[in-house]
């Protein structure tokens, strides 16, 4: 496989707007379908959502999906038909395995402030598994200036939460100006600038909301130009591969 680097700018994402939701989609989602933009590697959904105070997604179904939620600002209340409930906040990693079928709702926990979060979906290795839920808090100090493995199913990874996919892992970092990290080397990599401004070695500046899709990555350097937060999917396979 030839190495490629494809930059997808924030302004090119499809957008869903309602009275309470501003959602920006990195891939085809809902009414926004583009046959040339359905996934990268194993990543099917990378939604960048802002939900107004006291509002949110009413109870709805999912099936056979690993759903990872990462809150950037505010608090998101989760409740599902398996009896799991809680409030997700910055630094708390959350994964819901929809498995054989689950209902859940996601609401802004605050009635005064919006909540901003990124929700990401990958398909599990096996369909029809028992629905599940996991959350784990990651210490702020661990996230500052380095990559932390938030969620992974890759054997040997020490991750905050597990994924039912042995070829996928999510890493995160909060970077101050001048901080730099080396990207994982992998057959497929997806880098999303959740906050701030970054300089990618050999490619230039990435602004908030920009994403980069790599194949056959070589561990190049990513440096912060401003206070930033980055989400990186390392994937060792692709859908159908």
Automatic annotation (TrEMBL):
InterPro entries the UniProt entry points to: Pirin (IPR012093), Pirin_N_dom (IPR003829), Quercetinase_C (IPR041602), RmlC-like_jellyroll (IPR014710), RmlC_Cupin_sf (IPR011051)
Cofactors demanded by this protein: Fe cation
Single Gene Ontology MF annotation: dioxygenase activity
Entry superkingdom: Bacteria
Note describing how the cofactor binds: Binds 1 Fe cation per subunit.
Binding, Fe cation: 60, 62, 104, 106
Keywords assigned: Dioxygenase, Iron, Metal-binding, Oxidoreductase
Stated family: Belongs to the pirin family.
UniProt xrefs under PANTHER family: QUERCETIN 2,3-DIOXYGENASE (PTHR43212:SF3)
Protein name per UniProt: Putative quercetin 2,3-dioxygenase
């Amino acid at each position: 496989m030839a190495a490629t680097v494809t930059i997808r700018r924030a302004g090119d994402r499809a957008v869903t707007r309602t009275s309470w939701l501003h959602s920006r989609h990195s891939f085809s989602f809902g009414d926004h379908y583009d046959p040339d933009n359905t996934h990268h590697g194993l990543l099917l959904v990378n939604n960048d959502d802002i939900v107004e105070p006291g509002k949110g997604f009413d109870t709805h179904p999912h099936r056979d999906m690993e759903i990872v939620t990462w809150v950037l600002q505010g608090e998101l209340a989760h409740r599902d038909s398996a009896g799991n409930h809680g409030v997700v906040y910055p630094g708390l990693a959350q994964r819901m395995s929809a498995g054989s079928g689950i209902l859940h709702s996601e609401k802004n926990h605050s009635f005064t402030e919006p909540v901003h979060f990124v929700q990401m979906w990958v398909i599990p290795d096996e369909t029809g598994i028992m629905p599940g839920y996991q959350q784990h808090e990651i210490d702020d100090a661990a996230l500052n200036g380095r990559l932390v493995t938030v969620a992974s199913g890759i054997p040997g990874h020490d991750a905050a939460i597990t994924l039912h996919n042995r070829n996928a892992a999510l890493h995160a970092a909060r970077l101050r100006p001048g901080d730099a990290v080396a990207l994982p080397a992998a057959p497929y990599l997806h880098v999303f600038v959740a906050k701030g401004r970054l300089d990618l070695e050999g490619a230039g500046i990435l602004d908030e909301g920009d994403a980069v899709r790599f194949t056959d990555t070589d561990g190049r350097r990513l440096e912060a130009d401003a206070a930033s937060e980055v989400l990186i999917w390392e994937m060792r396979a692709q859908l159908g591969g």
